[in-house]
Amino acid sequence: MKKLILGIIITLSFAACKKFEAPEYGLTKVDIQDARIIYSIAEKSFPNTRFMLLDSSDNVRPVRFITTEGDSVDMTIYGIQHLNKDYLLMAGYFYLTGYDNPPTYIILVNKESGKIHPVKNCDAGLYNLINIGRQIYIDQEGYHYIEIGGSLYKCKSPSDDEVAFIPCLAENKRIGGRCMVSKDGIIYHEQGEDPDFEAFLQMPDNQEYSLSELLADRFHLDEGEMEFEHQPFLLDGSLCGILRHGTGNNRFKMLIRYGISRDNTVSIDVLQPRYPYTNLPEYNHVRQVHEIINDEKLIIDYDLNSNCLSESGLTTSTLPSNGLIGRSLTCQWYFDENSFSAYHLTDYSIAFTINITEKGITSTLKPWSDKCHEGITFIGILASTGQYILGHVHENGEVTIHESTVSDIINDFICL
């Protein structure tokens, strides 16, 4: 009898061990087919952040992973953002070959198929530093640049299963301020704080130059003769800056552009030796021209090919002085006191104003627009319950409230 009982105990113990063994599987893809919006939520009953998706039929489901067996499983996701029009960048703990093996911390996901491409040689500490909305720069060689935790990495769209993140800056160098990359691969980055602040240009061959020394040599400037205003910035993908120099009444601004010379050093071209404007040029994708708004709110057209400025005959005097959100497919958007206003990018005339409180929304958070997307998307707080919800204002003035997205808290979102 004792032997029988002992046998049962051993059998049950073995069964229990089998039940809680880590599953062995491979992840084949992420289930994001037909997704329109991916958003992160927090719920009172489940305080950790979860990622959900809204599909074209206004249905909501969790962002889950598909195994080789066809099962749907959860993985810990810390952040999702666009890499480009074809791929998403995801960070978290991804057990691609089962829980018995170390996780992958960053993956690229094909937006159409959901196929997973693991990012190799990536530090474990990077997984929680991916944030929605972080700027991605793309050069003419096809490299994508992303700043993560003070370091700059580059990668290409996947051509095979794995993707490598390549560190860009010199060893032990970290980004201490602004950073941007031009289409020809010139990296602008800042180090330190006043009085030890310095800006650098790093060339594609990794040669690095002090910006202040470059400018002093190019324009024969003495110390104290120069300072930057509203710089740096990208103009049609090229790295540019506004250089103010001179003394007293002879102090003026010029518009300059950085490039690569034949010997792979930095070239500095003067685009406009006298730049009398406060605002920088901005591309209007509807009119297909760079525009500069002068102090009288008149629009000056800037043709980069001819490097000529001309009056457009248009004015922005009717636009609000603040509350700018951004541009969408055909409109420029403003927000003020729970009202969205849309202006046509063809002539800056007003299209419509919508009071969002009339839709049962007491306040809005993080309104977002993009020139490749129609209308504007936002997080709203319901007047009736205080819960969060996603909404969209279309460019014809219609408002869509996505009732299926009601949550205790919506932290952020991206539109696909």
Summary keywords:
6% helix, disordered N terminus, 4 domains, five-stranded antiparallel sheet, mainly beta, globular, 50% strand, single chain, 416 residues, five-stranded mixed sheet
Biggest pleated sheet: 5 strands, mixed
Structural class: mainly beta
Residues in helices, as a percent range: under 10%
Number of domains: 4
Poorly predicted segments: 1-22
Coarse morphology: globular
Number of strands: 37
Radius of gyration: 26 Å
The number of helical runs is: 2
* Biggest sheet, spatial arrangement of strands: 7-8-9-10-14
Measured between the Cα atoms of the first and last residue, the distance is 66 Å
Q: What is the averaged pLDDT score?
A: 86
Report the sheet-strand fraction: over 45%
Overview of the molecule:
The protein is mainly β and 416 residues long. The chain folds into 4 domains: 23-168, no CATH class; 176-273, no CATH class; 277-317, no CATH class; 319-416. The chain is built from 2 helices and 37 strands. The strands form 9 sheets. Strands 7-8-9-10-14 form a 5-stranded mixed β-sheet, with no helix packed on it. Strands 20, 21, 22, 23 and 24 form a 5-stranded antiparallel β-sheet that branches. The radius of gyration is 26 Å and the shape is globular. Residues 1-22 have low confidence and may be disordered.
